[in-house]
């Protein structure tokens, strides 16, 4: 999950797989919540959906999530960190950060199976974008 506040600050949040049913009914995209009793730690993994994010929220079994009554607070629904096309090659050695780009869709390739490090295969499809 990605949370965003009224200052457009974002933080990555996750819950252990066995706790997802506890929160899935209340957490609705676009709604405003009050969250209590969670852990915060420095991000150490390779997956970082927020470029300037150094910390991550971890839900626990006693984490409290309440939908706020006032849903009119000025909190944006989305935040993007666009990167110019010519900057994309500079990111190829920084795979932990996700980037947002916009362009004209030129082509979509057929699905192919690619090998993963653990020996499994995964379906992959390439999208070819044109810089507009």
UniProtKB/TrEMBL annotation:
The lineage of its organism: Eukaryota, Viridiplantae, Streptophyta, Embryophyta, Tracheophyta. It comes from Kingdonia uniflora. Pfam families: DUF223. Residues 1-68 form the Replication protein A 70 kDa DNA-binding subunit B/D first OB fold domain. SUPFAM superfamilies: Nucleic acid-binding proteins (SSF50249). This is Replication protein A 70 kDa DNA-binding subunit B/D first OB fold domain-containing protein. Gene3D superfamilies: Nucleic acid-binding proteins (2.40.50.140).
